Amino acid sequence: MVKILAIGGSTRPGSSSELAVRLAGKGAEDAGATVVYITGRELMLPIYDTESVDRVEAATALVQALREADGVIVASPGYHGGISGMIKNALDYAEDLAKEERAYLDGRAVGCIAVAYGWQATVSTLHQLRQVAHALRAWPTPLGGSVNAALVSLAEGNEDPATKAQLETIGRQVAEFAIMRQTAAR
Q1: Residue 43: which pLDDT band, with cuts at 50, 70 and 90?
Q2: Residues 149-171 pLDDT 10s
Q3: Residue 12 — very low, low, confident or very high, per pLDDT cuts 50/70/90?
Q4: In this structure, what are the phi and psi dihedrals at residue 34, rounded to the nearest 5 degrees?
Q5: Cα(115)–Cα(146) distance, rounded to whole angstroms?
Q6: Which residues pair with 147 in a beta bridge?
Q7: Cα angle at 31 between 44 and 171, to 5 degrees?
């Protein structure tokens, strides 16, 4: 069984980016993965500090979840044309894995999802998420998610069908990649 870590959201519980990461996580679950969610206010961590090994409990839990993950799904709101500070800071904690055998997110698929009110912020945020995934030695999935929250709903029971399918596909791609890597390693 592969384990996928799904992180995303904003400080607002039930935000569009949190709903998006949960829909993508459902796609991974449907593909046979176990999904661990760290979302919203659980991601309100101290600024990543390279000069200290002291970590609050939530940061330690995030780093452990990254360490154990066979794949990752990340959904960020687009703030002022880019990744939110909260999501970028959470990803910065992958630096704690730098000296491990499987450094950073090496060899893992990362499903990247950007949610914003408008296409410009959505597309630029998605591009930045893919760049960060590459910098962490990960494999961004072929399909990335661009969700224009001004045009579509992700609310449960009222999800835009095409957007829901796109997000579930991203989660499925992360899980399938992880399953393929696990099978190849046997």
Answers
A1: very high
A2: 999 999 989 999 999 999 999 99
A3: very high
A4: -95, 130
A5: 6
A6: 115
A7: 40
Question: Distance (Å, rounded) from C-alpha 86 to C-alpha 166?
Answer: 24
CA angle 128/129/133 to nearest 5° reads 115
Residue 64 is part of a domain; what is its CATH number? 3.40.50.360
What total of structural domains would you count in the chain? 1
Residue appearing with tokens 């066979």: 70
Q: How far is the C-alpha of 49 from the C-alpha of 37, rounded, in Å?
A: 24
Boundaries of domain holding 62 = 3-185
Q: Which residues contact 125 (CB under 8 A, 6 or more apart)?
A: 76, 77, 78, 81, 82, 83, 114, 115, 116
Q: Which of 158, 174, 67, 159 has the alpha carbon at shortest distance from 113?
A: 174
- Residue 186 has what pLDDT? 75
Q: Which residue has the tokens 């997000």?
A: 167
Q: What is the pTM of this model?
A: 0.96
Report pLDDT for 22.
97
pLDDT at 185: 80
> How many residues would you count in the chain?
186
